[in-house]
């Protein structure tokens, strides 16, 4: 791994960090972080794992908030930390924006005061993101003169996000920004997050322990467990990789990108175009032409040798079997190629034998439900 | 009822001493409180204990050692005479030094607790927003700890007003120089002049009460606005 030539990662985000917190006498088992990540310099990278796996600690290391960590943090050609050369830039000298779990807004300042705090500290020549732009994007105008104490959870996070953006960062770090919010507020904030990479040309590093959030936002996914990286790659690959720890867990499924192709008003269905194949989902009210992500769970996909007629299942795609991986004593996980994408199906061993499933076999995938993310 | 000129002099001197001591206390106490709140040093409990000593020691003990320290034979006194000055004992400067040490815990503890209450998160947030350590201190830590500063200043001021033992030991009883209210009251009682003693004692009682009332009242109102 270390033999990768330096130039290969010059344009990416390089995070190589080691941090040890010894066990304490009070029963804290201690913690060890040891990761070596080369991440893309654009789009959304999600660090995913259970609480305590070290994902938030990685963000803190990247931000320079963990002074005891050893290693390298390099953003393109800018070195933020290189312990072997004795380089450690303090957080205020790293061009990053950080959104904390519960916002960490300053209670002694108004919303406007919080935004200004960030903006005023950016040298004029480095300012790329203007206040009006952020205020409009995050719909902050009605909040500007309010005290932070009276804001709802969702409003707080919007202000926190705006404040972080106003530092005109080269890298945006988001530490479980939705974790403290209820479901409906989370849904209301997600569209704001989704459009970040399109609106601002900077990479986003996002920490979450919700797979749904990861599936909806991530371009690149990093899996973490007990302070170690257990996988890193493009989201769609990671979600369908049988060797990844993700597909070992309960709700394994593929995520596909679809375009809203139209609506069927009579039956209240939305037509989704997935690389030329049309899938139907319950009417979403989304406008035609919009790109969405959909998730198809492996347990919602069944296989048959013929395109079943007289079935209640609407979505049937011809597919080719790629490989089979035993999951539990009675079931196998089947990887399917639709021609453009990978789907997963969870079927019993008995069915796999009955259908004579094996690599190269052509079958039909019956998709019971398509979830819009 | 009009204040006797001598008592007026004592009152002015007392207010001067309390104001000056409070100013010095805030100047010295703030960095000390900041250090105590932020450090992970093993020395912290030792410094905490030293700062708190005046809370438990009889003022005479403190005054006694200060007298030895500041007197013409003491290390500080000698330093002063080398520098061409005179001994600090029985001077107003000596009183300020004594008051500062005597009232230190009343100023350091509220500020330290207020800094602890601010926590690390707002400071880390400020750092990620580009604020340098000094910037973070003045634009985040101090405003968020303002109630602690208010409490500290009031307690420091009120406590210095009422000091007696330390003043008596190191300041003596020199009208216009070191004779403060508490000493004047003592003198009046000694001289059986209860009328003048009442006027000063009652005045001090009221002043101290209203100062404390102001602190608690402001803290309450502030608290309701904030949370």
Could you explain the architecture of this structure?
The complex is a heterodimer of chains A (373) and B (227). Chain A is α+β, with helices and mostly antiparallel strands and 373 residues long. In chain A, 20% of the residues lie in helices and 36% in strands. Chain A starts with 12 loop residues before the first strand and ends with a strand. The longest helix of chain A is centred in the middle third of the chain and has 13 residues, at 153-165. In chain A, a hairpin with a 4-residue loop joins β12 (253-264) and β13. Chain A has two domains: 14-244, P-loop containing nucleotide triphosphate hydrolases (Rossmann fold); 253-372, Beta Barrel (OB fold (Dihydrolipoamide Acetyltransferase, E2P)), CATH 2.40.50.100. In chain A, α4 (153-165) runs parallel beside α5 (183-194). In chain A, strands 7-8-9-3-10-11 form a six-stranded mixed sheet, sandwiched between helices. A five-stranded antiparallel sheet of chain A has the order 2-1-4-5-6, with helices on one face. In chain A, strands 14-13-12-15-21 form a five-stranded antiparallel sheet. Chain A is globular, with a radius of gyration of 23 Å. Chain A is built from nine helices and 21 strands. Chain B has helices spanning 5-38, 44-56, 59-70, 75-82, 92-118, 121-128, 133-144, 146-161, 165-170, 181-190, 194-226. In chain B, α1 (5-38) packs parallel to α5 (92-118) and α6 crosses α7. Chain B is globular. Chain B starts with a helix and ends with a helix.
The number of distinct structural domains of chain B comes to 1
Distance between the termini of chain B: 47 Å
Q: Count up the helices of chain B.
A: 11
Q: N-to-C terminal Cα separation of chain A, in Å?
A: 35 Å
Number of strands of chain B: 0
* N-to-C order of helices and strands of chain A: EEEHEEEEHHHEHHEHEEHEEEEEEEEHEE
């Amino acid at each position: 791994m270390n033999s990768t030539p330096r130039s290969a990662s010059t344009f990416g985000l390089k995070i190589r960090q080691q941090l040890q917190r010894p066990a304490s006498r009070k029963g804290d088992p201690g913690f060890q972080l040891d990761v070596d990540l080369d991440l893309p310099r654009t789009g959304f990278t999600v660090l995913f794992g259970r609480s305590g796996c070290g994902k938030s600690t990685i963000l803190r290391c990247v931000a320079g908030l963990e002074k005891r960590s050893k290693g390298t943090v390099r953003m393109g050609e800018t070195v933020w930390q290189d312990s072997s050369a004795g380089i450690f830039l303090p957080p205020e000298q790293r061009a990053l924006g950080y959104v904390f779990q519960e916002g960490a807004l300053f209670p002694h300042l108004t919303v406007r005061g919080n935004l200004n705090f960030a903006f005023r500290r950016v040298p004029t020549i480095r300012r790329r993101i203007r206040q009006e732009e952020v205020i409009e994007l995050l719909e902050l105008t009605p909040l500007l003169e309010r005290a932070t104490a009276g804001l709802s959870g969702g409003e707080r996070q919007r202000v926190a996000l705006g404040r972080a953006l106003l530092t005109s960062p080269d890298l945006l770090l988001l530490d479980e920004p939705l974790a403290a919010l209820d479901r409906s507020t989370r849904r209301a904030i997600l569209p704001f997050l989704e459009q970040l990479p399109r609106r601002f040309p900077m990479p986003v590093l996002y920490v979450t322990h919700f797979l749904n959030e990861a599936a909806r936002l991530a371009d690149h996914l990093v899996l973490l467990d007990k302070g170690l990286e257990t996988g890193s790659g493009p989201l769609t690959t990671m979600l369908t990789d049988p060797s990844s720890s993700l597909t070992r867990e309960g709700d394994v499924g593929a995520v596909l990108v679809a375009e809203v192709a139209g609506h069927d008003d009579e039956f209240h269905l939305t037509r989704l175009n997935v690389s030329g194949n049309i899938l139907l989902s319950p009417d979403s009210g989304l406008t035609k032409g919009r790109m969405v992500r959909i998730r198809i769970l492996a347990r919602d996909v069944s296989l048959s040798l013929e395109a079943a007629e007289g079935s209640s299942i609407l979505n049937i795609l011809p597919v080719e079997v790629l490989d089979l991986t035993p999951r539990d004593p009675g079931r196998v996980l089947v990887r399917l190629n639709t021609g453009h994408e990978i789907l997963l199906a969870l079927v019993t061993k008995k069915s796999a034998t009955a259908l004579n499933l094996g690599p190269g076999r052509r079958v039909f995938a019956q998709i019971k439900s398509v979830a819009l993310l | 009822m009009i204040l006797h000129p001598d008592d007026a002099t004592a009152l002015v001197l007392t207010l001067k001493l309390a104001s000056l001591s409070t100013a010095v206390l805030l100047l010295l106490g703030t960095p000390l409180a900041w250090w105590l709140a932020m450090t992970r040093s093993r020395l912290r409990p030792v410094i905490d204990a030293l700062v708190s000593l005046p809370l438990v020691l009889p003022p005479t003990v403190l005054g006694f050692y200060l007298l030895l320290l500041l007197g013409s034979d003491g290390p500080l006194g000698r330093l002063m005479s080398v520098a061409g000055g005179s001994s600090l004992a029985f001077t107003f400067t000596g009183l300020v030094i004594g008051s500062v040490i005597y009232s230190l815990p009343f100023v350091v503890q509220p500020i330290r607790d207020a800094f602890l209450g601010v926590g690390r998160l707002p400071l880390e947030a400020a750092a990620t927003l580009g604020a340098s350590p000094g910037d973070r201190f003045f634009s985040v830590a101090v405003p968020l700890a303002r109630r602690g500063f208010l409490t500290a200043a009031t307690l420091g001021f009120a406590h210095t007003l009422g000091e007696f033992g330390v003043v008596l030991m190191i300041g003596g009883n020199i009208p216009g120089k070191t004779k403060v209210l508490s000493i004047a009251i003592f003198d009046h009682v000694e001289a059986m002049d209860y009328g003048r003693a009442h006027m000063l004692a009652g005045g001090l009682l009221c002043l101290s009460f209203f100062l404390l009332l102001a602190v608690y009242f402001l803290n309450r109102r502030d608290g309701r606005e904030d949370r």
